[in-house]
Amino acid sequence: MRVATTRGTFEVHDESRDARGAPLVLVHGFPFDAGSWSADGAALAPRVRVIAPSMRGFGGSVAFEDVPAPSIDTMADDVAAVLDALALTEPVVLGGLSMGGYVALAFARRHGHRLRGLVLADTRAEPDSDEARANRDHGIARVLGGDLAGLVDALLPKILSPKTLAAQPAVVESVRAMALRAHPQAVAQALRAMRDRPDARPGLAAIAVPVLVVVGADDVLIPPAASEALASGLANARLQIIESAGHMSNLEQPAAFRAALAAFVAAL
Ligand code: MLT
């Protein structure tokens, strides 16, 4: 559904509005949209209210032209605006995968009082290295030059486990199709935002709520060792490794991912 906020109109999947307990808000990775959480939302309902917004520019979400260069912080403030528009004043469990995790960490820093728990999936607190920044610039030039398909095809072997690539053609195809749906301007904007994101490590000590850190065992973009470091930098975190999954752990091994998510939310 479309949710009109003070910052723009966002496409939001909102499942199970009658569910009890803290709502679970899920932020997608790059270059995807709220559709990457559809199956999780449907499976977790009716026990959990799952709210998944598409970030500005993705999945039909349109922000007002108030920010020329939206940052990860901008996206975190967009999430807060969506919660305001849904009249959600109680604390939520916020989860994000990869870029969504960068947004979740920014939300914790900027709107920490609204959190009941955090789920950080296939993500990291460190900023980009110089090499990663240069790759972002290359990606921006590529996508603005009209080659989104090239960018997506180069991304797939990095974000999916070799097992998924070999044995789950439907997952590969749906991930590819979702990435190809992205608007090139939004893709470039997200690449800039990720390139320029600050180091989130100094804020980790201030996160007091329980945190579930999830990572695919075969994630080569943000490997399990990085997730171990993230979990050990947090006061109250548990690490869950998802076997036979790469960077898109919720789509590659949905049952294991959801079981971890459901157990974490139930224990809060
Ligand atoms: C994502 O999955 O959101 C991105 O791969 C994250 C990144 O490129 O840093």
> Averaged pLDDT, please?
96
N-to-C SSE series? EEEHEEHEHEHHHHHHEHEHH
Helix content: 40-55%
Strand content: 15-25%
Which word captures the global form? Answer: globular
Query: Count the strands?
Result: 9
Low-pLDDT stretches: none
Enumerate the distinct ligands: D-malate
Radius of gyration: 17 Å
Structural class of the secondary structure composition? Answer: alpha/beta
DSSP summary: helix tally: 12
| Largest beta-sheet details | 9 strands, mixed
Distance between the termini: 28 Å
Description:
Strands 1, 2, 3, 4, 5, 6, 7, 8 and 9 form a nine-stranded mixed beta sheet that branches. This protein has 268 residues and is of the alpha/beta class. The protein starts with a strand and ends with a helix. The protein is globular, with a radius of gyration of 17 Å. Strand 3 (24-27), helix 1 and strand 4 form a beta-alpha-beta unit. Helix 4 (130-144) runs antiparallel to helix 5 (148-159) and helix 5 (148-159) runs antiparallel to helix 7. It has helices at 38-44, 72-85, 99-111, 130-144, 148-159, 162-167, 169-180, 184-195, 201-204, 224-232, 249-252, 254-267, and strands at residues 2-5, 8-15, 24-27, 50-53, 62-63, 92-97, 115-121, 211-216, 237-242. The longest helix is centred in the middle third of the chain and has 15 residues, at 130-144. The chain is built from twelve helices and nine strands. Residues 29-30, 98-99, 194, 221, 247 line the site of D-malate. D-malate binds at residues 29-30, 98-99, 194, 221, 247.
